[in-house]
Amino acid sequence: AERGEECAVAAVVARVSHTDAGVRIAAIRALMLVAQRGDETALAAVSGRLCQTEDGDAGVRAAAVAALAQLAERGDERAIRAVSERLDDAASFVRSVVETALA
C-alpha cells in the first residue's frame, strides 16, 4: 500500500484495538508506514490507545508514543498532551521514548 492510502489506513486502524498486544504493536508500527503525517484517523486511533491506561502492555504504549511523534504535525496539542501523560509511565523504556518524542 502507498502512504496515505485511505483503505490501508482504515484496515490497520481496525487492528489498533485488537485483544492481542502483539497485534496492537504491529498495527501501530504499520500506521507509521501507511499513514501520512497529520492523518486524523491514524492520530485518533493511536492517541486513543495511548490514553487507555488499562492497556497493561508497555510495548504498546512505547509504540504509540513513537507513532504519535512521527505522525503528528509539529505542535499538535492533542499528541503532545497524550505523550506527556506517559512521562511518569511505570516502564522506564516508555519514559525514554516519551523524552525522545518530546525533544
Automatic annotation (TrEMBL):
| Pfam families xrefs | HEAT_2
Stored InterPro entries: ARM-like, ARM-type_fold
Instruction: List where the protein spans the membrane.
Output: none
The name of this protein is: HEAT repeat domain-containing protein
What organism is recorded for this protein? Strombidinopsis acuminata
Q: What is the lineage of its organism?
A: Eukaryota, Sar, Alveolata, Ciliophora, Intramacronucleata
